[in-house]
Amino acid sequence: MPTKQELLKQPIQHIDIKQHNVVALVDAMQHMAFSSRDLHRAASIYERMLLDTDCGVILCLAGSMVSAGLKQIFIDLIRNHMVDAIVSTGANIVDQDFFEALGFKHWIADDLLRQGTEDAMLRENMIDRIYDTLIDEEQLRFCDDTTEKVANSLDPRPYSSREFIRAMGAYLEQEGKVPEKGGVDSIIHAAYQNDVPIFCPAFSDCSAGFGLVAHQHARQDKPKVSIDSAKDFYELTQLKIANPTTGLLMLGGGVPKNFAQDIVVAAEILGNDAPMHKYAIQITVADVRDGALSSSTLKEASSWGKVDTTYEQMVYSEATLAVPLITGYAYHKGAFKARQGKRWSRLLEPVTA
Ligand SMILES: NC(=O)c1ccc[n+]([C@@H]2O[C@H](COP(=O)([O-])OP(=O)(O)OC[C@H]3O[C@@H](n4cnc5c(N)ncnc54)[C@H](O)[C@@H]3O)[C@@H](O)[C@H]2O)c1
């Protein structure tokens, strides 16, 4: 049986859009057909939403985007004010981004391993598999334990996931797990520094869930930290009310897609005349026939009063192909240059100093 060291040899390397100018390539795609033309339109809509400096851009992440090599893109979007809030699954933010910030890596699985015939051997080695990517489960346990440590350090009360993730950013800073101190850059820390709120509406459904379960078990009847997803929804809705023009860049689908779309309706319920999301892009492989949320088109979302139909585009592509092109296009066109960071976290936690 191969050893863990032999299996975990080749790390996933995150693509750097700054190094690859794709503008000419994506522009040429507008004269083609099918998905390439859709992709060009999506890239143009993303550029347009960035040029609209009133627009608050919400990035939605489902699927395994961070472990797949897209992490540096999300960091660059944060640092260049190309995103104002993130709504994500916990897996992307905790199991994958926080995990890497703690010093761990994701590894490339060879062709034989991705066929699934060797999964029992991987289990014996305590290695987890995401299709063609491998993770050291012992390191993931350390990530679970660290979220428990963060929970233990907080005043026991209900928190929005945004507040908890901000505390994770503060933890990385305190522990020196940041580039300035020899650590690796992370979405959580970049967002912490740039006051970009991150929401994980199903926060317990990831590594953080294990940490929180352990925290609550240890506390028994004593006051404890808990996650309040209604508070998340209220906070995100407050951002929509304060900044009515919004655009969505959605990768995958899942809970983040609906959660971010629903703030239009929530704002309305709170007595505000909030417009639908003005811009919306979704990149997905989901097929519309199942009637599921993940696969539903943005036109369908307009029937629910959530997304305007003028600037919307579905792109049917696996995200690792489409995201570098769409974001790289907007980056190299300089669409972000006139934008200031909206620093939405400050709106939710007013700075008193
Ligand atoms: N490996 C993991 O993804 C993982 C690990 C731990 C926990 N979880 C938890 O499981 C729950 C469900 O996760 P999810 O919402 O990511 O579910 P999901 O994998 O069902 O993805 C949601 C939708 O996004 C689409 N999608 C996913 N990856 C894509 C890609 N690369 N390109 C294009 N489209 C893609 C899917 O087709 C699906 O329609 C979450 O709460 C998450 O935190 C996931």
TrEMBL record:
It comes from the Bacteria. It is an enzyme of class 2 (transferase). Gene3D superfamilies: Deoxyhypusine synthase (3.40.910.10). Its EC number is 2.5.-.-. GO terms for cellular component: cytoplasm. It holds the Pfam family DS. One of its GO terms (molecular function) is deoxyhypusine synthase activity. Keywords: Transferase. Transmembrane segments: none annotated. Belongs to the deoxyhypusine synthase family. This is Deoxyhypusine synthase-like protein.
